[in-house]
């Protein structure tokens, strides 16, 4: 790039950012302009900054690659295929994790120096916060495929590149990573990258499908297509089904096609309520060949073609029995004896938890601090105990302290202990603090986000120096400390706000995990049976739950997670005749929960019940009308704040803007 062109690029960025909103300008696309504004106003990046793209250290790279091991293993072959298609045209291919770090790279080895110089190499971090507008970082923010072509890059140093990236989502709609192809030189017109973007999108969809099949390898996977011939090769529009025909997960296409793009409206539903199929018949025939079944939606009778992949374990044995006819499971001894649950038992059949447990087992005795994140009641403390029990320290003490429930003035003495007469009101014989009590065992710091800022430096010192000086004492006591922390807060945000020390955060977060909320667990039906057995102190399956009650329980939102589930089951047991739970035994909030707007709409929009619709709405399908209702309700609920509504509905902000426009939704202040 000539000096003059560089100057021109920088001036263009400054003048475009000076615009007050993200409306189209003559020469810059709206999403690019929005990203330029974020880059300058939020991230404070200088477009003239010529520093090279940041690269992770070897150790950091190793840690991140290890954390994303499963994803990398599944995604790599897809990225390799993509690279073979584009390498002759001067592209390299990048596979990034959800931290936008390049964890795999394929490119022409002859040009390695140039790729490295451009930051298109292993370990490079393409975050919008660091680089400004760039395909990978901006794709992460926008949550949709994007090409950033030449001068659309924010920093002048990247303004020769052309890059196209697409997000890769897990079956729960969360970002797993991104795939990108980039070239050092390309024609001036952005149109030249149209097919590059399509290829990247296609690869991302394929990887998502591979990941979906992997995640649900021990479940039934229904694959739906609108064309009989393509059905056997189709790999999108996937629904994972439990042995009882309940939907456990749905990929993006299935969510859009049958759930108005909304995750919650699909999960926990009986497949027989969505399609006019008998799940029993379907699985009796499954596995006999690559069979394709015509199926019809209950809502509007539209025809599709489906194939069914059997659970791997069953496929291996070549299906003889229906999974739902499995023989009764004897509850693990530890359940009825009310002993602590093991890690494997806590993971149940939930795919994310199983992955977490595998990773935890790897770090068990390596003295790596563990940070457990998760909503209230997701079982963080139970998990921490299970980690302790699985470690070689199991016969040493497990000492828990809840930083939120102890007054700030007492936390210090509780944690660090004190010598006799250290302060007025102190016990005569002094007190051993929790840290010393946990010596050699595990110290569990619950609600670590509530640790007073004044005490954070002291805790940091203990962790670094492995010795502790009780209040009123001058001689330090050596401690062998293993720490597990838990919080429902976003500590990273607290670090940014300045209410939590960054150095302490990194010290405590040797490895971190997010325990999934109950509504996202893929084994909810099994977990309910398990929790019921615990509450009733019986065998799993000894008390039955009728279909309607199970439907209500699996569909409920569970804001209080497992804690709330156990309370509800305890209540239901008390209300029941003792060996069968029905919907009438459930507490009101579960029994009379409002059907999600989309579901209730779908039911009333079945052909035989269809209501006349206003003139303008007749051009929308029932699904679209339902979607409009959901969006409208959510916007009203959140006082028309788009970010909050998008979050609740589970779609990106820009998607929501598009839909608002599509459905002629006008906020009250613009009427
Ligand atoms: N897998 C499980 N099966 C049965 N019961 C469980 C399971 N996990 C947790 N529980 C129960 O759920 C309740 C909440 O668990 P726990 O206190 O560990 O959650 P938490 O995430 O630490 O909650 P909080 O954030 O509110 O402190 C406890 O009664 C616990 O025994």
TrEMBL record:
Protein name as annotated: Sigma-54 factor interaction domain-containing protein
Pfam family, one: HTH_8
Annotated GO MF terms: ATP binding; sequence-specific DNA binding
Lineage per the UniProt record: Bacteria, Pseudomonadati, Thermodesulfobacteriota, Desulfuromonadia, Desulfuromonadales
Keyword Transcription: yes
UniProt KW keywords: ATP-binding, DNA-binding, Nucleotide-binding, Transcription, Transcription regulation
Domain Sigma-54 factor interaction: residue ranges: 346-574
GO biological process: regulation of DNA-templated transcription
Cell membrane recorded as keyword: no
Origin species: Syntrophotalea acetylenica (Pelobacter acetylenicus)
């Amino acid at each position: 790039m000539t000096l003059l062109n560089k100057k021109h690029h920088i001036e263009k960025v400054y003048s475009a950012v000076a615009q007050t909103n993200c409306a189209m300008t003559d020469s810059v696309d709206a999403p690019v302009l929005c990203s330029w504004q974020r880059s300058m106003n939020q991230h404070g990046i200088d477009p003239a900054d010529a520093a090279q793209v940041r690269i992770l250290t070897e150790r950091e790279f190793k840690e991140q690659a290890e954390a994303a091991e499963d994803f990398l293993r599944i995604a790599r072959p897809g990225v390799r295929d993509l690279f073979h298609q584009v390498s002759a045209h001067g592209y390299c291919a990048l596979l990034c994790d959800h931290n936008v770090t390049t964890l795999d790279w394929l490119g022409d080895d002859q040009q390695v120096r140039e790729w490295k110089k451009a930051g298109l190499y292993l370990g490079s971090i393409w975050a919008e916060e660091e680089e400004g507008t760039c395909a990978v970082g901006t794709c992460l923010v926008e949550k949709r495929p994007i090409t950033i072509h030449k001068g659309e890059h924010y920093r002048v140093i990247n303004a020769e590149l052309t890059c196209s990236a697409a997000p890769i989502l897990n079956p729960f709609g969360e970002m797993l990573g991104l795939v990108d192809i980039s070239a050092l030189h390309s024609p001036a017109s952005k149109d030249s990258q149209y097919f590059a973007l399509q290829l990247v999108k296609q690869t991302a969809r394929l990887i998502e499908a591979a990941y979906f099949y992997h995640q649900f390898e021990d479940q039934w996977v229904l694959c739906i297509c609108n064309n009989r011939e393509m059905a056997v090769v189709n790999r999108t529009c996937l629904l994972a089904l439990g042995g009882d025909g309940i939907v456990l997960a749905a990929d993006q296409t299935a969510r859009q096609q049958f759930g108005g793009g909304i995750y919650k409206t699909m999960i926990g539903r009986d497949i027989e309520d969505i399609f006019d199929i008998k799940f029993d018949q379907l699985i009796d025939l499954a596995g006999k060949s690559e069979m394709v079944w015509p199926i019809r939606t209950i809502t509007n009778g539209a025809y599709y073609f489906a194939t069914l992949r059997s659970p791997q374990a069953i496929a291996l044995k070549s299906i003889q029995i229906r999974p739902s006819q499995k023989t009764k499971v004897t509850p693990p001894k530890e359940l009825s004896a009310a002993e602590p649950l093991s890690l494997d038992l806590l993971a149940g059949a939930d795919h994310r938890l199983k992955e977490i447990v595998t990773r935890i087992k790897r770090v068990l005795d390596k003295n790596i601090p563990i940070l457990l994140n998760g909503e209230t009641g997701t079982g963080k403390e139970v998990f921490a105990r299970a980690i302790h029990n699985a470690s070689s320290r199991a016969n040493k003490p497990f000492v828990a302290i809840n930083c939120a429930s102890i007054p700030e003035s007492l936390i210090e003495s509780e944690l660090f202990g004190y010598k006799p007469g250290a302060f007025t009101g102190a016990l005569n014989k002094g007190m051993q603090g929790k840290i010393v009590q946990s010596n050699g065992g595990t110290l569990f710091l619950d609600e670590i986000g509530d640790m007073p800022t004044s005490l954070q430096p002291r805790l940091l010192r203990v962790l670094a120096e492995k010795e502790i000086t009780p209040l009123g004492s001058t001689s330090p006591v050596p401690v062998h400390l293993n720490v597990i922390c838990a919080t429902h807060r976003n500590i990273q945000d607290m670090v940014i706000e300045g209410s939590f020390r960054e150095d302490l955060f990194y010290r405590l977060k040797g490895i971190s995990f997010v325990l999934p909320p109950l509504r996202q667990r893929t084994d909810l039906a099994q977990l309910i049976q398990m929790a019921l057995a615990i509450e009733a102190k019986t065998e799993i399956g000894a008390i039955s739950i009728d279909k309607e009650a199970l439907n209500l329980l699996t569909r409920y939102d569970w804001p209080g997670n497992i804690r709330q589930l156990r309370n509800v089951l305890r209540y239901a047991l008390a209300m029941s005749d003792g060996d069968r739970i029905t919907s009438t035994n459930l507490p009101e909030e579960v029994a009379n929960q409002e059907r999600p707007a989309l579901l209730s709409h779908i039911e009333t929009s079945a052909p035989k019940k269809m209501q006349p619709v206003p003139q303008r709405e007749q051009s929308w399908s029932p699904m679209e009308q339902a979607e409009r209702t959901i969006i409208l309700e959510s916007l009203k609920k959140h006082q028309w704040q788009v970010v909050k509504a998008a979050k609740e509905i589970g779609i990106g902000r820009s998607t929501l803007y598009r839909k608002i426009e599509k459905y002629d939704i006008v906020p009250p202040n613009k009427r």
